[in-house]
Amino acid sequence: MPEEEKTGVFISHITEERGTALLLKDLLQKTFKRDLPIFVSSDYESISGGDVWFTTIVNGLKHCAVIVVLLSPDSLERRWVNFEAGVGVGAKATVIPVVTHGLELSGVGHPLTSLHIRSIQTIADVNALMTDVGTKLGLIPRALIDSSVLIAHASQPSAGSGWIGVDWDDQFLAVGGPVLKLPKVDDQTFTKTQADALRKGGFSPHMAHRPNMKPSVDAGHKIVYLTDKKTYRAELRDGDTILVAKRG
Predict the structure, then answer these.
(1) What is the pTM of this model?
(2) Is pLDDT above 50 for 101?
(3) Which of 62, 87, 88, 148 has the fewest Cβ atoms within 10 Å of its own Cβ atom?
């Protein structure tokens, strides 16, 4: 019995990032064709009233040719997103992890890092993703489609789970969230690349004089901690100065 032909795109995402998924859906349909089948798990057009959502989602995963998995600092460790990616791989679809909301490609980790990872945080990255999708679907992207709205939205820091910050060198630079509940360990030496990662993630970092933090705190800055989100937090110092940052 011949294998059923797969069509369309499935966009896997967490509920808090529904807006990103819908903007990507709109751009895909503008880039290729308006009737391109695109399944978004939180989209009312994808799941009708009365449908059993689990069955509908699994069927969507099994029948789509391309599965785009939106990964952010908040969604990376969510079980459901990883489950959807796994079903897609098992169904022999083309699974494309896509980093967004400040997550760097280097922060994805296993098992998704074994797949070819894309981003939607620059024009070049979005164009590359469109080419990947078009190649799999046998469609030619239309030229000069404006992706600026999606890029601006996808470049905003993520804060859905309470963690605020950016991934850096397989760790997390926390500017807010539950980090204060973790045990504090010895201070770490500040490096310029940490500040660069924060800037790319939409933060304004600077080194504050530790004995006189009041001006920085009054301006809205918070201490930046290096953490694995599970076992420790460490301040980042250079002599008597400490790394602080605020959004924007």
Answers:
(1) 0.62
(2) yes
(3) 148
